[in-house]
């Protein structure tokens, strides 16, 4: 009986030792694995324990992130509009695009006036919104609009804005309804100024000269190079230069029929003062057109705050002689 008890105890001890040995072996295996991982990350750590395990490197992004600088910012005009009153904005050229920030305001071009936009509130107390306007000469105008039940100003004249000094007027828009971009028009205009030869037609009055120095065409656009000269000692501030088609002869008691031709681009538009004495050169780009034999194209220049007004006439036969530009 004692022998059996001794054998049973011996067997239990053997099982216990076997289980302890397995646990010890398992612990050594885990320690070896962890040490191998540490050695793969920290050079020289547990280098004697098993082969190192390497993890794949994270992919490196090649995308270049650009930051906007202050010179990229475009400023905005501030204006207020009311619910019971309409505000009008007058631009130097016809309006080709209007975008509104939200439905708190409504805007539309004035009927019969392509360069005037009318704006008013569609709801009282609307939150601040914005409005963007692009004109046919490719300039972008930005506005921040707030509600005012009784706005102090109802009419804004943007036609007199000095675009060279305004951060809210940007001459960078490309005209999508034409086959050429603004950069094309600028390049063609510089080419026209290099080619100009003597006055084609002109008028001289009060020591001021308005001269058309040839006519050119490219991509369904006419280019009119204008030379403005001042031989007096008094500066001539150009208010605007207008192109319109008018009847050659008008019978008595008959209203004069005029149709304005709006330029799509003006080269050197910021030069609006002819120094006394001095001169400036500009190029006006107009969409391709022809006129009947009983009508003329009239080019007219008005002085701001003065009476020195000049004009000359271009006939249809003159227009048909326009020269093709070579790119």
UniProtKB/TrEMBL annotation:
A Pfam entry, by short name: DUF4138
Q: Which keywords has UniProt assigned to this entry?
A: Signal
List the top taxonomic levels of the source.
Bacteria, Pseudomonadati, Bacteroidota, Cytophagia, Cytophagales
Q: Supply the gene name.
A: traN
> Which residues does UniProt assign to the signal peptide?
1-21
Which NCBIfam families does this UniProt record tie to the protein? Bac_Flav_CT_N
What name does UniProt use for this protein? Conjugative transposon protein TraN
């Amino acid at each position: 009986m004692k022998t059996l008890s001794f054998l049973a105890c011996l067997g239990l001890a053997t099982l216990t030792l076997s289980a302890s040995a397995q646990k010890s072996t398992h612990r050594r295996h885990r320690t070896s694995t962890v040490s191998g991982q540490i050695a793969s990350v920290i050079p020289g750590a547990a280098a004697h324990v098993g082969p190192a395990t390497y993890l794949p490197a994270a992919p490196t992004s090649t995308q270049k992130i650009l930051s906007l600088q202050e010179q990229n910012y475009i400023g905005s005009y501030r204006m207020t509009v009311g619910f019971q009153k309409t505000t009008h904005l007058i631009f130097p050229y016809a309006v080709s695009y209007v975008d509104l920030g939200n439905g708190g305001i409504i805007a539309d071009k004035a009927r019969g006036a392509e360069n005037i936009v009318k704006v008013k509130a569609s709801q009282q107390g609307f939150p601040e919104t914005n409005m963007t306007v692009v004109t046919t000469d490719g300039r972008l105008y930005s506005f921040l609009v707030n509600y005012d039940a009784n706005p102090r100003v109802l009419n804004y004249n943007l036609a007199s804005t000095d675009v060279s000094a305004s951060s809210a007027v940007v001459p960078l828009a490309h005209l999508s309804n034409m086959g050429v971009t603004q950069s094309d028009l600028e390049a063609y205009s510089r080419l026209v100024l290099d080619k100009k030869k003597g006055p084609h037609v002109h008028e001289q009055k009060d020591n001021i000269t308005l001269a058309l120095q040839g006519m050119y065409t490219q991509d369904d656009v006419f280019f009119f190079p204008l030379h403005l000269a001042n031989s007096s000692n008094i500066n001539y501030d150009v208010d605007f230069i207008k192109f319109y088609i008018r009847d050659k002869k008008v019978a008595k008691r008959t209203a004069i029929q005029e149709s304005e031709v709006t330029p799509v681009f003006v080269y050197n538009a910021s030069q609006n003062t002819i120094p006394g004495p001095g001169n400036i050169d500009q190029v006006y780009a107009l969409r391709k057109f022809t006129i009947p034999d009983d009508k003329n194209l009239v080019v007219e220049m008005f002085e701001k705050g003065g009476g020195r007004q000049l004009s000359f006439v271009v006939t249809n036969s003159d227009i048909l002689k326009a020269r093709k530009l070579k790119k």
